Recover the amino acids of this structure.
């Protein structure tokens, strides 16, 4: 049986596809190889590789990278084990993408600045960096029912992850909580809680930061919300020559 890190990643992220047309559009326009930050088990990387694009997947978790490598097979996917704050490519690329909440996972503004510098250095002059950002979440009544859990069966085990709706941003941070339940083939139930802290950055704020680091804003967009996911803002930045 595969490790649980990859399983939970698939349970909680694997079904999301609302952003895939965006990455295809950017790939069509700017070319490859494409560097994906925080590639996980390959939700985006494999989608692009199946369409013929060369993808470099950056991930700091060994288990997730191993899973991606196995799934990729002969597809044009290269993997690099590294934290984005330590990113060093042996070449420059025309496109870097940061799907979902990647930039919000930076622990501080200083870390985000450092990440942006690494991204700039990885881009060709005129190359493009595109990131998705969360906005403010709608208020949720205290008595509201929790969202439907994400569920997946693997080798007879049932994995269910139920998000507990956040109450929006507190200052510049949001704490996301999920209740994870595992049901073994013999019916034994285990439960644990998982927490992720997100650091807010808005589109105008990110653009201003990036302009001071050698980028210029060239576009904005929006990915609409789905039944299970909030909408995301898109910021597109070009590395200055």
């Amino acid at each position: 049986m595969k490790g649980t890190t990859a399983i939970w990643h698939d349970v909680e992220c694997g079904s999301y596809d609302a952003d895939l047309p965006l990455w295809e559009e950017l790939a069509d326009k700017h070319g490859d190889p494409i560097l994906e930050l925080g590639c996980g088990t390959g939700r985006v990387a494999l989608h692009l590789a199946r369409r013929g694009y060369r993808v470099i997947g950056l991930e700091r978790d060994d288990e997730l990278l191993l899973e991606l490598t196995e799934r990729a097979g002969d597809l044009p996917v290269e993997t690099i084990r590294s934290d984005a704050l330590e990113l060093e490519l042996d070449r420059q690329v025309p496109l870097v993408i940061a799907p979902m909440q990647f930039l919000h996972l930076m622990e501080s503004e200083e870390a985000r600045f450092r990440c942006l510098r690494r991204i700039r250095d990885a881009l060709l002059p005129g190359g493009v960096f595109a990131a998705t950002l969360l906005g403010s979440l709608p208020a949720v009544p205290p008595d509201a029912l929790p969202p439907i859990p994400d569920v997946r069966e693997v080798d007879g085990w049932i994995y269910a992850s139920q998000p507990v709706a956040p109450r929006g941003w507190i200052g510049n941070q949001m704490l996301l909580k999920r209740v994870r339940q595992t049901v073994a083939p013999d019916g034994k139930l285990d439960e644990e809680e998982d927490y992720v802290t997100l650091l807010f950055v808005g589109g105008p704020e990110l653009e201003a930061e990036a302009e001071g680091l050698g980028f210029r804003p060239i576009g904005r967009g929006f990915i609409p919300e789905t039944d299970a996911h909030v909408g995301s803002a898109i910021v597109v930045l070009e590395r200055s020559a």
